[in-house]
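no rush on this but wanted to send it before i forget. theres a chain ive been looking at and ive put its sequence and its fold in token form underneath. please have a look and point out which stretches look like helix strand or loop to you. thanks a lot i owe you, the record is right below:
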Amino acid sequence: MEAIKQIIKNTKAYYCLECGKCTAVCPISRREPAYSPRLTVERVLWGEGEELLTDALLWSCLTCQHCSTRCPSDVHYVEFIRDLRALARGAGQEGLCTHGEAIQTWMRMMTSPELKQNRLEWLDEDLKVSTDSDTVYFVGCLPYYDVLFNKIGAQGVEIAQSAVRVLNRLGIEPIVMENERCCGHDLLWEGDLANFRKLAELNIAMLRATGAKRIVTTCPECARTLKIDYPAYVGDLGMEVVHIAELLAQKVGEGEFRIPNHESRITTYHDPCRLGRFMGVYEEPRQIISALGLELVEMEHSGKNALCCGTSCWTNCGAINKQIQVDRLREAQATGAELLVTACPKCQIHFKCALDDVGLDEEIGIEIRDLVTLMDEALVQPLITDHCNLEGKCRNRKSKIENRN
């Protein structure tokens, strides 16, 4: 099949040395011997690509990119899997969707240009937003997650509210689009390119119409999708895209926040795959944790070697995925930490879902929080106040700091 040959070429799969380093670090392969990134590539190179398109194992990959960080030949395995899934879906195949396919359903509903949503009721009176700011806060699916995952205490709306409040303390009143769509990340990585493109086109039109220069997200998957995948598949936004951890770390370094001293807690941090291995953002969340006065203790696997939270695209989440999540939670517990911090709403949901087990919750007993909610909770009145423009730059900031000292 010509399409498979093109995937092999585009992802450098023909460079595979069959060394097995990818399989050695794959979290699925460690628990399911039938799955192997090395063998998957070999099958396609041996001419079994069309057969693979009907194999359920195609949907097992977490696309965590751990394999690619170890590959000596620079084979782009996760893109290899993503593109094969697109072919498989075109042939009528798909992965087993979790949560009754509710999440994929709302994503596909959002592809309708006529859809009008009621998605801004979470904006309290104390949250200041604008219609002409230089910054858009891209909320993503957070308000919808709260409906589905309220039982396990997911922080969906709380994350969104904290993000706006923290931006306000920087003097930024962001634009929050009332009819924003899902970014389409999960549909893209499940191989549903048609609906991904529809979502991207709608979002791109709305984002460009704001006239803003920057997009801030609280979801690493949104950040990756807007920054890398939209330009690759649909069109360049012409806007800077940053995860909020990047922005806050910059502002902390510049002294824009005054964070009070408080009792330190032993804390460990989980690196989300999309924020870490995909976008190289490792130090910024740790800088914020340090600025909050928390005592950071690293897990055995952290940074580039961090374990995945165990589930991708709300697809094929079963016993093996639960094992991965539990292993990660036990690794966090082994640090002696009281608090596990994430910078990804999905990672938090997956870990809290794993802990939604009476025996496991009692055994591990670790609190799980999103980074931006911790920053919001800790902040007092910032150093910059009434002389700031929307970008939080103060004309006489230096003199104010000197007067305080």
The longest helix spans residues 193-210.
